[in-house]
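Quick one:
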Amino acid sequence: MNDFAVKVLTAPIGKTHIFSVGQAGFIIKSKSGQLLAIDLYLSDCVERIEGHDGFKRLLPRILLPYDLEFDVLISTHFHRDHFDIDAVPSLMSNGKTKLFAAEDCRESVSRLEMTDNNITYVKPGENHICGDFEIDFVNCDHGTGAPQAVGVIVKVDGKSIFETGDTCLRLDRISDFKKYGRTDVLIAPINGAFGNMNEQECAEFAEAIDAGLTIPCHYGMFASHGGNVGKFYEIMKKQYPERSFCVMAQGEKLTI
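Output:
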């Protein structure tokens, strides 16, 4: 078992923790110790499929699929850095983990010859309770290439964590998101490519939704994806000095 997995397992019970795994991958550990993971990219399958340097994995692998046993696994859409075809079957092999996957992941599950045991395909507007986690799936706008992609709001231990999924800026949907209550932690992309918000747009979204804390994601993994976390840092400091944010290093733990 590697050092990062040990860090997750030994994070103190009685507190809620968020861990950054890289790209759009995050792990949430509840006060009782249950584990929920969102969009883990643990392999190099994107480069293997795309076959060029633009999709070479640039961040190290800090977690192997068998290192942790998750209670809940979420894939917000079928793109391979969100539904890792080389890792998901192993992550699900324990017979315990429950997978909530966007509808567009059905084909991947079929090609991998996975059973539908413990798999629930989700659409915006659905609500599911799984152990310590209440999960609302919400609209996102990842363009015509992934029209069934979803965002996810995880409520755990009295906190609300909104992972937008891959999406462009949609300020017209702010009132819809606010119906789910206060956003204590917002996790959103800043790469500005493939239909995603850029650094400025992520900051504007955080302000519009009145996020308690904003964590930028979706940068640093692939050369072709872009995303300048330094630029995001400067925008937040200069334009929104009263708004809290946290730039998480890969493998970092944040206690909320």
